Please model this.
Amino acid sequence: MDLIHPHSKRDVMDALRGASAADTRVLIVGGRQHIDKGNPSEADAELWTTLLDDRIAYDPAEMLCVVEAGMRVHDLRTMLAEGGQEWPVDGPDDATVGGVIAAGVTTVRQLRVGTMRDTIVEMEVVTGDGRLVKSGARTVKNVTGYDVHRLLTGSLGTLGTIVQIALKVRPLPKTARTLVINEGGLELGRRVLDAVPLPSAVLAEPDRLVVRLEGWPEEVEEQAAAARSIAAFGETEAPFPEACFPDATTVAEAAVVPSRLAQLLAGIDRYRAIMGVGVAWVPFEDEGALTKLRARAAELGGIAPAIRGPGGLGDAPIPAPEVERRIRAAMDPAGILAPGRTWST
Amino acid sequence: MAALDDARTELVAALGADAVLHDPLALRLYARDASMVEGSAGLVVFVRSAEDVVVCMRVAARHDLPVVPRGSGTGLVGGATPIADAIVVVTAKMDRILEVRPEDRLAWVEPGVFNLDLADALRPTGFTYAPDPSSQQVSSIGGNVNTNAGGPHCLAYGVTSAHVLAVDVVLPDGSVGRFGAEAPAAPGYDLRGFVVGSEGTLGIVTAACVRLTPLPPAVRTMLLDFAEVEDCAQTVSAIIARGVVPAALEMMDRGIVRAVEDFAHAGYPTDAAAVLLVEVDGLPAAVDAQTREVEAAAREHLVGTIRVAADDTERALLWKGRKSAFGAIARIAPHYHLHDCVVPRKALADILAGVYAIAQRHDLIVTNVFHAGDGNLHPLFSFDRSVPGTLERVLAASDELVRLCVDAGGSLSGEHGIGLEKRDFMPLVFTADDLDAQACLRAAFDPDGRMNPRKVLPDGARCGDYAAAALGRDGALPEGTWI
Ligand SMILES: Cc1cc2nc3c(=O)[nH]c(=O)nc-3n(C[C@H](O)[C@H](O)[C@H](O)COP(=O)(O)OP(=O)(O)OC[C@H]3O[C@@H](n4cnc5c(N)ncnc54)[C@H](O)[C@@H]3O)c2cc1C
Model:
């Protein structure tokens, strides 16, 4: 396995142009935190983005920051905290910003802060054949041309190397509290969700419920009181979100509409579900369990890719295979970027 | 014309005579949208279902005819303006709300549903559809999706793309697909995200699955007035700098305030240089806290009076002032040209000064009412087209305006889109490689280049392999196309 470790966008362009010419298959790697997500694909070389980690621009008054894609989430968090702000995406510290975007990471607090894909306002990407392509603008709102960055988000490194992004950031909440109770299940989760106005997250496990509240102190106080009217919550100072099943070697991330979580998770004894959103993480022991979960998710109109360990994405049908094939050809004409890694390729 | 005649015969046979219009009046009516570009329609087809749309696409494909989707035609950049005798497919009659599922926080709607009708229908469930373009009484969800429409409340809640979970699309070859999903994740590339804001150039949206947003428990609306435009503009940044993101933050200058007062009698101060309409929402405690911060920021910047709506009636009145702006400007002059540029917030004060200077240089009346919190300007030139030379002056002023905003680090459009009006400005913000990539990706959906041709991308943006023919089907654009 060859290693490409570029220092600059220009290096990335040269490397990919060369790889396309030589038919070298390339796996793009950020912080390796989400590398398991995707179908197995063979590569001749890895391209590491981690040296592309410069801060390009950050002006808190604009609520925008521009960074290179290899910047670690932890470093971005530190930089933004100095401006009293955050990128409202719950990625692990060691992940790179580009990796979080390419992997399409789920935002745990999306009830309140929205989804990751809507935070990306501008992107520079190097295509499989080494062209630098920009889309979007450094403004909070923009309808100017085609949003190429939408396609790159969640593309698992199959359409190009994300080299730079402008992100919409938001003020850090004035207060944040995490309520917890060792009593659980989706039913209690649903009641809490109904009773507490505008929570950031309600996470249900079979025997535990975690409620994340963020906002102005008085507001959070009111929400906490509403939660406590449903159950006798305690409180934790642990960082939020907690690592997801750190002891499990294999985890799937199922997605169904929120009202079908109960059907999806019936009989499953370990899970963590985001109430009101419809995402559930399920550790699985063997392929049989994963296949069963996937079949059930499919019946319920959802999917269940593995995000840790082997297992891949599953074989859910994509809506317009021809369109996706042409998109891929437009961005990676030689087909060198992790062939087979995503649904369509 | 033979192809068009054959297409008409086939469409009449499939959809009925009353669904296919080709009389001169209809062709004239559908030759433009709310912009000033006049195009030419070949046929106008009213579709009632996705199946009807498939028929249209197949017929158009068979006869190699261009197709232009149209919702309500309130678009301001010529997006729904047909060129080269295209078939105009009107989705206005697909106007049913198909399904409302509060438990999943989603609803399915047909594209012809009016934005405000959807919000009204949702209200009893305790939810709303958050994007609220000023045209919401008449603009359609299909149009909103395809322009990625914004509105006053998009500052806190995000623009249309954040509220569309899935779209059903008929592609130019007549095939259908559901892009995105009800579930929070979907397999494949995010085609949904690519279609939102694509200005009808990739396919026709026949249904949209939209996100429901809980109605806020409490809301407070304030009107702040300022003796200097600059103080007003700086208050916008000062509010954000305090870590407050209001639900809405709208600015109006003296010219528009006076026009609105004559019309809506909302009690706006007509002697102020500019006013800010600020709305904060959330839990009651959060509303109080945000109000305090907004007031403090405004005081730092020499606010005149701070009027806080005492009740829902007064709140509605304050909003009436804002929302009737476009009705009111008809009193200034018979024609108007409404711009849409977006700049970094901190540039607002300078850009506004620049806007006034440009208007003065070209001897035009300009008023401003816009989404200040987003840095999204809407300078509005009022004029009388019948006065010789006026149009030319408007054009020249518009050109300068676009360049001014781009030079300040802004972009061509915050919410109205590119359409025909701004396509030739695209090279100001994108390189040839950027534009070629966009052309290729567009061609991935529409290899034959029949879908709303000549829009968004300037002629010359090419896709090396298979889209050479996609753009530039024939000669020059119709006269007056710029505006
Ligand atoms: C007074 C006034 C105020 C306005 N205020 C705002 C505002 O605050 N915010 C804002 O964003 N806009 C605003 N607009 C612009 C306009 O209302 C929006 O762009 C709106 O989204 C257009 O909707 P429509 O149904 O009229 O679409 P149309 O004008 O019919 O079409 C708009 C575009 O979408 C395409 N399209 C329409 N329907 C479909 C479909 N079903 N499938 C595929 N493509 C389709 C068309 O081809 C065209 O490119 C305003 C316009 C006016 C006149």
About this structure: Residues 390-407 of chain B form the longest helix (18 residues). The pocket of flavin-adenine dinucleotide is lined by residues B 33-34, 68-76, 79-80, 91, 111, 133-135, 139-140, 142-144, 146-147, 149-151, 199-200, 204-205, 326, 415-416, 452 (CB under 6 Å). The longest strand of chain B covers residues 218-226.
